[in-house]
Amino acid sequence: MNHSSALPAPAAGALVGIASRALRSRRLMRAPVRLYRARLGFLLGTRTLMLEHIGRKTGARRYVVLEVVDRPDADSYVVVSGFGTRAQWFRNVRADPRVRVWLGGRGPAEARASVLGPDEVAASLHDYAARHPRAWATMKPAIENTLGTPIDERGTGLPMVRLRLTRE
Prior knowledge:
Blueprint: H1 9-24, H2 26-37, E1 48-54, E2 61-70, E3 76-80, H3 88-95, E4 98-102, E5 108-115, H4 118-131, H5 133-147, E6 160-165
Antiparallel strand pairs: 1-2, 1-4, 2-3, 3-6, 4-5, 5-6
Helix pairs in contact: 1-5, 4-5
């Protein structure tokens, strides 16, 4: 008898399809922002945060809810750009790394964004996959589908950003 927690191939394929479509649904992806802005972010658990960034062309405040993939220290959060370097939030924080981070039901905290190097990406990805194997097994193919390229064990092609809280 197989006691494996893995899903049968048809069920896993269906989950990948659902996750891929969800990543492309603007309405679905924007719903968590409303929760955070209403100070209800705690409903989404401790693995998400809302990032407030400034539009590089408009100068307007922009918001995105992202999964925290690593916590290197008490004042740092690592997030991944599932849409690669073409994600608007990613392009915006590269242009202006001064951001604000909303955690749970708390208001924003000043932070600074920095793109991780290849070794840091590999370490964060390895730690995440070890801590959340089911989530990674589902999300990896969905992200690969969105990026249009495979993700190797080093996370090649998968941009990650460290958000370090500042005491400004």
